[in-house]
Design brief:
Order of helices and strands of chain B: HEEEEEEEHEEEEEHEHHE
Shape of chain A: globular
Structural class of chain A: mainly alpha
Largest sheet of chain B: 9 strands, mixed
Structural class of chain B: alpha+beta
Radius of gyration of chain B: 19 Å
Strand content of chain B: 35-45%
Strand order of the largest sheet of chain A: 1-2
Oligomer: heterodimer
Number of helices of chain A: 14
């Protein structure tokens, strides 16, 4: 009897700990501390699974045709290749390139202009946007309430069947927080499991002198905003960060994207104007448009010989993470 | 059983009654009826109100300039067509000479991600295209507005300088258990040039200007 009580209390104690601890995000020790407050949204397998199901379900759009994954495909490191601008319901085209989704726990502001202040609230923007999903959170709640297996999935994740905006957003965040890319060759080298070849080594040195200031290791972005000398596209007249802050010094500033998984995430820049890495590097060598708030590091352009350019690209390709891109846990749930 | 009931009622007898804050909308001297037409002398036209909702937060009872009771981390969405009362459960009978509260959502909560209850984005008080809560929403109609269906819409929000719209209100009130706070919509609208300013729905200069009028909007009945 005594043994039974001890055993039961031990089981209860252990399960209490595991429930409280939930699911742990795994990331390398050379990554900084995540910015996302994981205590406010404790990860569980059930909630992550719900978030994944929602992420891949077009039910989140007005006419049930567009899901998050429509523009954030796992095979493209959750970007959208071949589409310079995002493609929404009724074949409507948005004004910006769908960014890759990875290592989101380390980011503070979202969207190319930083209009969104928290990962949880990010999903509301494409959901409401008339050219993206054109839907309202309240209508989504109505639809989910009537659609199996959602009431069950919500019950599993949150222990009750009442579906709210908060729960939908937190579940979507949980899935997206899991999208950690840290298995590239660069990461293997960091962990002393692989070595760069000579060309990659030369490229790494060039990277550190010319790119690291904005595309800071190990996430390959400092996630701030910069004017990188792109001439304005007058068909879009997108002034980036200025549209949020209305400060002239923020004009033409855009969020600095991570360079991880570059090969999977073309086209590049906020309007998808460049199709190849080569075009991007050429822009930094000879395409910079001078202006008052141009990133100071780019005032003179980046000086690279054609050999150096090849070396730099060789290094950048070590940031591709095929284990991330082809991770079955992140793909369409079966 | 009777004994337990007796203990419970005794417990309730000694517990002070909660203080009830009620928000009562008025149009001038008339108590407001939703969608009813009122005449405003200042704009010389009729006005009707469709909805009025706002966040009430950081409620404090004050005695001689000192906070004696505080409701922390709670945002109440006041909606004159649904919920226009908030109860304060104090531990003992309190003597106070004024009440203080904020209209809007504080800047920390603005950046804290998805929240439930009255702060759930499903309540329709959240801007999706640029993160932030709408602190105060007033919608109605007036023939003076040259808009579709003559509507005016004031969605007042913004938490980042210089477009910070959260407002701090202090009202004198003597130890009452029922505090009736009058919302004078006529007075608020008389401060707005309704003919030219009728759609304010983003953090901007006009939102800040309108939020500064809230101090004249609330009074003790």
């Amino acid at each position: 009897m005594k043994f039974k009580i001890t055993l039961i209390s031990l089981i209860l104690f252990v399960s209490a700990i595991t429930i409280k601890k939930g699911f742990q995000l795994k990331y390398p020790d050379y990554f900084p501390k995540p910015n996302y407050d994981l205590k406010k949204n404790i990860l569980t397998k059930e909630t992550i699974a719900l978030g994944r199901t929602l992420f891949y379900d077009p039910i989140l759009s007005k006419n049930n045709t567009i899901s998050c994954a429509s523009c954030h495909s796992s095979f493209n490191a959750f970007a959208h290749t071949d589409h310079s601008l995002s493609h929404g319901i009724d074949d409507l085209i948005g004004t910006r390139n769908a960014p890759a989704l990875m290592n989101l726990a380390w980011q503070k502001l979202f969207m190319w202009d930083g209009a969104i202040n928290h990962l949880d609230m990010q999903a509301l923007a494409p959901i409401n946007h008339p050219k993206e999903m054109g839907e309202s959170i309240n209508h989504i709640i109505d639809k989910l309430n009537k659609t199996a297996p959602y009431p069950t999935l919500f019950k599993k994740a949150f222990r009750d069947t009442i579906i709210t905006g908060e729960k939908i957003l937190k579940a979507l965040s949980q899935f997206q927080l899991c999208l950690i890319s840290a298995e590239s060759k660069y990461d293997q080298v960091k962990r002393n499991k692989k070595k760069f070849n000579d060309q990659e080594n030369r490229g790494y040195i060039l990277f550190k002198t010319n790119c690291n200031f904005c595309h800071t290791e190990p996430l390959f972005s400092n996630f701030t905003f910069a004017n990188n000398g792109l001439a304005i596209d007058t068909t879009l007249n997108d002034f980036g960060r200025w549209q949020v802050t209305k400060k002239s010094e923020d004009s033409l500033m855009f969020k600095i994207p991570s360079l991880r998984n570059l090969s999977y995430t073309y086209p590049y820049m906020h309007d998808g104007r460049f199709n190849t890495i080569n075009q991007v590097i050429n822009h930094y060598i000879k395409g910079i448009k001078q202006s008052a708030n141009l990133a100071p590091e780019l005032k003179k352009g980046i000086l690279l010989s054609s050999n150096e350019k090849t070396d730099l690209i060789a290094f950048l390709l070590t940031l591709n993470d095929s284990a991330f891109v082809f991770n079955r846990n992140f793909a369409y749930p079966k | 059983m009777i004994f337990i009931g007796f203990i419970f009622s005794a417990f309730y007898l000694f517990k002070p009654k909660p203080i009830t804050l009620s928000f009562l909308p008025y149009f001038g001297k008339d108590s407001l009826v939703i969608n009813k037409n009122y005449f405003s002398e200042i704009i010389r036209d009729s006005v009707s109100i469709q909805s009025l909702r706002f966040y009430l937060s950081d409620i404090n009872l004050i005695k001689n300039g000192r906070k004696i009771y505080q409701v922390k981390n709670q945002h109440n969405l006041i909606d004159i067509s649904k919920k226009s009362q908030v109860k304060l459960f104090t531990k003992s009978e309190l003597e106070f000479d004024s009440i203080q509260f904020d209209i809007g959502v504080d800047s920390l909560s603005q950046v804290s991600g998805a929240m439930g209850g009255d702060l759930d984005p499903m309540k329709g008080m959240y801007w999706s295209w640029q993160s932030g809560y709408i602190n105060f929403k007033l919608e109605g109609k007036s023939n003076i507005c040259n808009t579709r269906n003559h509507v005016f819409q004031f969605h007042i929000g913004g938490y980042i300088f210089p477009y910070n719209t959260i407002q701090h209100i202090i009202l004198p009130v003597q130890n009452k258990t029922n505090i009736n706070i009058k919302l004078n919509i006529k007075k608020l609208l008389s401060q707005i040039d309704l003919k030219n300013v009728n759609q304010v729905m983003s953090p901007c200069k006009k939102s800040v200007e309108i939020s500064k009028q809230f101090a004249n909007f609330f009074s003790i009945e």
